[in-house]
Amino acid sequence: MAKALSDKIVATNKKAYHDYFIDEVIEAGMVLRGSEVKSLRAGRVNLKEGYAQIKDGEIFLFNVHISPYAFATHDAPAPLRVRKLLLSKAEIRKMIGKVKEKGIALVPLKIYFTKTGKAKLALGLARGKKLYDKRATLKKKESDREMERAISKHQ
């Protein structure tokens, strides 16, 4: 998974953690073209509206915007093109079973580069939060901050 300290995180999807409960995180490779890797290294990617879907036994990434590389010499791929994700057959079968459950979605959480220089995507199995769940999460986060402040003042 994406736990190694030397992994360079390119982009995170903070909105996903706000809008969804993340049940499980799976690491997937991405099929990229030409200058897309250089754009990723420059951090020119937006995951906010992205999602993944299963079609014909394969998983595809939709609505992830990778800006065209400014110094590319020839045809740059479309920024919002559909990208194939690379997972093993067993992982795809497992995902198909989970996604068939009501309310489960595949959401991109972050894009990062491994030690070997490969671009990877952390894909989350997510359940949608209701408005009251979001409020409760914010209240808990705020109370935790207050406790940390109080503890640090006394020390």
Written overview of the protein:
It is a single chain. With 155 residues, the protein is an alpha+beta fold. It has a single domain, classed as Small Protein B, Chain: A, CATH 2.40.280. 30% of the residues lie in helices and 35% in strands. The chain is built from four helices and nine strands; from the N terminus they run E-H-E-H-E-E-E-E-E-H-E-E-H. It has a seven-stranded antiparallel beta sheet. Strand 8 and strand 9 form a beta hairpin. The protein starts with 7 loop residues before the first strand and ends with a helix. 24% of the residues are buried. The model has no long low-confidence stretch (mean pLDDT 84).
Q: Please give the domain count.
A: 1
The CATH top-level class label:
Mainly Beta
CATH topology: Small Protein B, Chain: A
Q: Which sequence of SSEs, written as H and E, runs from N to C?
A: EHEHEEEEEHEEH
Model regions low in confidence, pLDDT < 50 over at least 5 residues: none
Report mean pLDDT, rounded to a whole number.
84
General shape: globular
CATH superfamily: Small protein B
* Residues in helix, %: 25-40%
Main β-sheet, in a few words? Answer: 7 strands, antiparallel
Strand proportion: 25-35%
Please state the CA-atom Rg, rounded to the nearest Å: 18 Å
Q: Which secondary-structure class do the elements indicate? A: alpha+beta
Total strands: 9
Walk across the major sheet and give the strand order.
1-8-9-2-7-5-4
Q: Give the end-to-end Cα distance, rounded to a whole number of Å.
A: 37 Å
By DSSP (H or I, 4+ residues per run), the number of helices equals 4
